[in-house]
Amino acid sequence: MTHASSTIDLVRTNVSSHLRESANIVVVGRGNHKQMVVASLLTAPRYRIWCQSPELHGNMSWQTFRRVLRLHFPHIRNARRDTDVCKHCKHFSDELLPRAVKLVGKVRSVLQQFCSGYFSSYDSSSSTQRLQADKQVVAEIKSFMQYINVRNADSSNDPLRATMTRAQRLSLHTAEAAAAHKLKPHVEILEAYEWHQITASRQTGFITDLRSGELPANTLLVQMDFKENVKYPMSPKETSEDWHAQNKLSLTVFGANALAPKLGGGHVEVFVLVVSDVLDHDAQAGCMMTNTVLAQLKQHRQVDWSVVSHILLVCDCGPHFRSKENLAHFLYTLPRALQVSVEICYLGEQHGKSGAGSTRMMQEDVGGPQFVIVKFQPGDYRPSKRIYLHADGLKVTRTYSLISSLSHLTETGVSIRNKIFSDNPPGILLTWHLEENNADPPVKWRVGYYDQPRSWEESGPQPGEQNSITRKFMEQKSLRPHPSVRARPSFLDACSSKARSLQKAAAKKRRKLKALRGNQESEDDSSSSDSSSSSSSRSSSSASSA
């Protein structure tokens, strides 16, 4: 029943309404039958789908339904939450767009009450059909509003109005004006939010193309961001002190994924993790950790730093990367210190997360990406000197790309251009100056505060030393307990230990059996090939004798 075509079709029909397409690609099949397909996510639990469908629970058991899904629909995965979603895109898709589509339907029904064929020419036009085919909803709503405006403005030449009375024409004109008035603010905000999505796609596409093989040989690409803080101490066995400490102590993890020129040609991928107990995620910390990443790449054994003449820094639009202090460091300090040109690529607001996954890539190619983990210890106090870049006519939040090049024609030694978008030509030459501030008195870095002894960093009492446990024993050892209350493994602990031992032994036996079967198959193949070759040689010898 599991492999019957009728059963498979029944499951496909009832599950299809509970699926949504995922952004992930999964590998299904085994051996030579592996293939990459787009994953589909269930919008409801599998058991609920089976219970709520009379066709499913009336024709097959729950075990059969689950087995059919596993065998014949391996691309279907359980539902999961989408985290770190852009709030602008969420508001656009969940609120703004549905409201506008609903308003278009109302406007259409109102205007068709005055004239049933009002939208006949609009629906039959090739431009409208093209927008509908391409699913350009915002452009379709805008063209819908423009159609109403044009028809209202050219009402004197409208053949449909010629048969109407003056009162009917006036009512239609009033309805058109009201419709255009209601649609206009919807179209304006939809275009703004769609531009946000276009910007994110535009910047991400630029980086994706570079990562797909278009990165020049002399360019170092570094994509970086602050990762989620890690609570510590962590251990497979955590004490109560460890648990209480985790509520107060955490580590900053600054991650960078780099494509750097490789010795001998090409590029090598390097993952750098900067770990620190400094909890500040501001512009100064971002600049200093960027320096740490570049220093690690410069001394990496597989990176040919002598080839690097251009550095592309890719980051999100957070204030720890997109500020006047960051611009001064990225566009002035780094080019002068490293004698290279530096370009900044800001990904769209709340779209700065990367698809690069070190764990997945390590599984695919163990010898591929390189990993570096380094500790960041800047001391107790922040550097007092801080530099800010001010440019005439530049709003930091209105640009996504700037480039700084070495120049002997300027007093500062560098020239800065505002490209606005990364795929634009060189951009607008900026007039800029630096502002330097000194903090007085020095400011401390923000770190986790824990006023108790850090027992996880101590080795614990050694033989011959005294503590509360030994002193308590010396005082109470005369009060001997009954033998039945002595500390020993419980029955459940003993059963669990025995079950783990049996499980390991069974797994070992399965591996041996699999290896023996593989050797037996190879021997059978070799013997069959030997027999076929001997038979062919005998037939050839008999033919020659004949």
Number of strands: 15
What class do helices, strands and sheet pairing give? alpha/beta
Distance between the termini: 58 Å
Rg over alpha carbons:
35 Å
Biggest β-sheet: count, sense, barrel? 10 strands, mixed
Number of helices: 15
Strand content: 15-25%
Low-confidence stretches: 542-546
Mean pLDDT: 87
Element-level helix/strand string = HEEHHHEHHHHHEEHEEHEHEHEEEEEEHH
Report the helical percentage: 40-55%
How many domains, in number, for the residues?
Answer: 3
Overall shape: it is: extended
Structural notes for this entry:
The chain is α/β, with parallel strands linked by helices. The chain has three domains: 5-77, no CATH class; 87-198, no CATH class; 215-438, no CATH class. Helices cover 46% and strands 18% of the residues. The chain is built from 15 helices and 15 strands. The chain has helices spanning 5-15, 46-52, 54-59, 62-72, 87-114, 120-124, 126-133, 137-153, 166-214, 240-246, 283-298, 324-338, 358-364, 468-476, 491-545, and strands at 19-28, 35-42, 76-77, 219-226, 230-231, 250-261, 267-276, 310-315, 341-346, 370-375, 385-391, 401-406, 414-418, 428-429, 432-438. A hairpin with a 7-residue loop joins strand 12 (401-406) and strand 13 (414-418). The longest helix is centred in the C-terminal third of the chain and has 55 residues, at 491-545.
